[in-house]
Amino acid sequence: MLMQVVLTVAESKRLIAKGVAAHPVVRRALQEGTVVIARGSTNGCVAQEILGEPLDKLAFLTGHTLPRGHKGSRPRPEGMPEIVVREGKVVPGISLAEAVAGLEAGDVVIKGANALDYDRRVVGILVGHPGGGTIGAVLPTVIARKAHLVTPVGLEKLVASDLTATSRLIAEGALDAEPVPALWVLDAAVIVTEIEALELTAGVSCRHLASGGIGGAEGSVRLLISGDRESVDEARRLLDSIAGEPPFAI
Predict the structure, then answer these.
(1) What's the mean pLDDT when you consider all of the chain?
(2) In angstroms, rounded to a whole number, what is the distance separating the alpha carbons of residues 35 and 179?
(3) Using one digit for the tens of pLDDT, what is the confidence trace for 68-92?
(4) Which residues contact 231 (CB under 8 A, 6 or more apart)?
(5) Nearest 10 degrees: CA dihedral of 227, 230, 236, 239?
(6) What are the extents of the domains in the chain?
(7) Model confidence over 153-184: pLDDT tens digits?
(8) What predicted TM-score, i.e. pTM, was given to this entire model?
């Protein structure tokens, strides 16, 4: 059985968040280990799904992209720290550095991305902080301790260029170019897009069919969903439940 759906960016973020919360490595770490949720727009939804509580997503932002010439108010990027969950309970008052220092094998760090090469399973993260930002703070320990880096990222962030080549181009032109953020390229993340989210939550197969739209569907993705009738009906119920997710307003 086939069905299609068009998801706005906001609906995609909510769907991906549900997929992250349902991922086996995240579920195990929530029960037996530690989950660190880094700040970000999609991760605000992730935190809501994992904690089952309201969250000020605006205060949970970190680096963000706004329209060119944006003249409105700006987010409060320092409003909330990262969220640390240990054996299912939020650990208050713990810094990111302290949480990362205590990571063990099987623990999870959830960190979003800015660019996606889906076929190669590679993501790119824009980095402006001289210390490497959040990814610079967590990645060495994640790798050394054999923890998991789980990356929620929407198909809206698919890029047409080779991320590694782009990262090298930025580095090579750093001395004579206008300020451009570095691009940290990762191929070891557990990537969760709308595709994986639907597979995890409804047991269906999913393909990225098309993108774009008008009247609020700008940046949307059109997905082709397949499976038996029961699984497709489950996917339909899930998608109906997130329909109309409000956009991330500044």
Answers:
(1) 92
(2) 34
(3) 766 665 555 557 899 999 999 999 9
(4) 202, 203, 204
(5) -90
(6) 24-65+76-201
(7) 999 999 999 999 999 998 887 666 667 889 99
(8) 0.93
